[in-house]
Amino acid sequence: MNYFNYKNSELCAEDVSLKTIAKEVGTPFYVYSYQTIKRHFDVFTQSLKNSSHLVCYSVKANSNLSLLKMLSSWGGGMDVVSGGELKRALKVGVDPHKIVFSGVGKTKEEIGEALKSEILMLNVESREELDLINAAARELHVKAPVSLRVNPDIDARTHPHITTGLYKNKFGLPFERALDEYLYARKQLHLNVVGIDCHIGSQLTELGPFISAVQKVKEFIQTLEKYDLHIEYVDLGGGLGITYNEETPPHPEEYGKVISDIMKGMKLTLIFEPGRVIMGNAGVLVSQVLYNKQTPAKNFLIVDAAMNDLIRPSLYNAYQQIVSIDKKEGDQLQVDVVGPICESGDYLGKERMLPRMKKGELIAVMSSGAYGFSMSSNYNTRGRVPEVMVKNDKFYVIRERESFDDLIKNEKIIEL
Ligand code: LLP
């Protein structure tokens, strides 16, 4: 469910035509719908109403400060994976007791920042990390709240780049070793073992892998209890998929209910780290047609957005719908929608049926709210594009377009 619809034959975000925004901010740009984000957040949260829970939005999906502020004002916590993301969350006033810090490679500085900020917990991924956190906490004369990320060796049945719960992935502690690690962690003077964490991948479109993982985690918590190790939090990560094309992922209500049912009676707080399911279908990338070009093999629609703006198609061969912003009747043409970057991998969509489009006309790449802007880069010395938030009939630029000066501001011209 989202609020991107055609009104008077123009694609709108809520009550604002994307053409109106293009006139104001130029192209390309990302645009997000406030009401869609709110709805996704509310539905997800509601699905957990029968359990004690905390929804920690996964900042990596889209880290715009205005967005984080909105989510935090609705009671959302944050899942961060770097000192930078931690600072973003703190900057917009997220309650530190609602922040969890994930990731396999936290530095000592990042750990120190997290401990000083008194976040809820650090999700730990290795023995060496446990030791480093213990040492950092000792120096700060505090006890570090930790949860251990376990790897259940379950196939999430998603793209290999975003599967994280298999032993061949770098994530988590193998289940077989987890008990030893818990017993070890408990003995460390500056660690407070408060939770368990398990995230098996992203863009999951079936409930099965989630259910298997949660059941394994539940059994393991029961084992821990036998060792008199009582934890307070079960962080089940993120990963719930969305519809990009024809996928039929479980509805968040179903997902929340199934998990709450498995964990029923456990007297624990469930933590979730959703990213894509909140933001994916709440944003689109708008771009302008620059040229039409034919070769004996293909028709190319060359647009002003490129792989540096949205890398998902190039990186994962991901499919995202592409539509014309003007609703057009009449014949359609099969095109590859490509950007100006000097690589053949620079495409937004291949072999798409689109109405005949002319220079200056606009397209929207749908489902771009998650892992769109946050993965964008300056490749080919292209400034990152503006981000716009629409709420009802108003729109707000929540990030300005980068200028050439922004791009070179840390460079030095040295004569060598
Ligand atoms: N928690 C942890 C520990 C994660 O690693 C991730 C995503 C999430 C939560 C949020 O997962 P979500 O609910 O968004 O599926 N760039 C890729 C996705 C990478 C996901 C990385 N980790 C893409 O564009 O498809």
Describe this protein's structure.
The protein is α/β, with parallel strands linked by helices. The protein has 2 domains: 4-32 and 280-408, Beta Barrel (Lyase, Ornithine Decarboxylase, Chain A, domain 1); 34-277, Alanine racemase (TIM Barrel, Alpha-Beta Barrel). Helix content is 29%, strand content 26%. It is built from 12 helices and 21 strands. Strands 4, 14, 15, 16, 17, 18, 19, 20 and 21 form a 9-stranded mixed β-sheet that branches. Strand 17 (332-338) and strand 18 (347-355) form a beta hairpin. Helix 8 packs parallel to helix 9. It is globular. The model has no long low-confidence stretch (mean pLDDT 97). The structure holds ligand LLP.
The level 1 CATH classification of the largest domain is Alpha Beta
Number of strands: 21
CA(first)-CA(last) distance: 57 Å
- The Cα radius of gyration reads 23 Å
Q: Could you state the oligomeric state of the chains shown?
A: single chain
Query: Which range best describes the helical content: under 10%, 10-25%, 25-40%, 40-55%, 55-70% or over 70%?
Result: 25-40%
Q: What's the CATH H-level homologous superfamily of the largest domain?
A: Alanine racemase
Mean pLDDT: 97
Write the layout of secondary structure elements.
Layout: E1 4-7, E2 10-13, E3 16-17, H1 18-25, E4 29-33, H2 34-46, E5 53-58, H3 65-73, E6 77-80, H4 83-91, E7 99-101, H5 108-116, E8 121-124, H6 127-140, E9 144-151, E10 173-174, H7 175-187, E11 191-197, H8 208-226, E12 233-235, H9 252-263, E13 269-272, H10 276-279, E14 283-294, E15 299-303, H11 312-316, E16 322-324, E17 332-338, E18 347-355, E19 362-365, E20 387-391, E21 394-399, H12 404-408
Bound molecules: ligand LLP.
Ligand LLP is lined by residues 58, 61, 79, 102, 162, 199, 202-203, 237-240, 273-277, 312, 316, 370-371, 375.
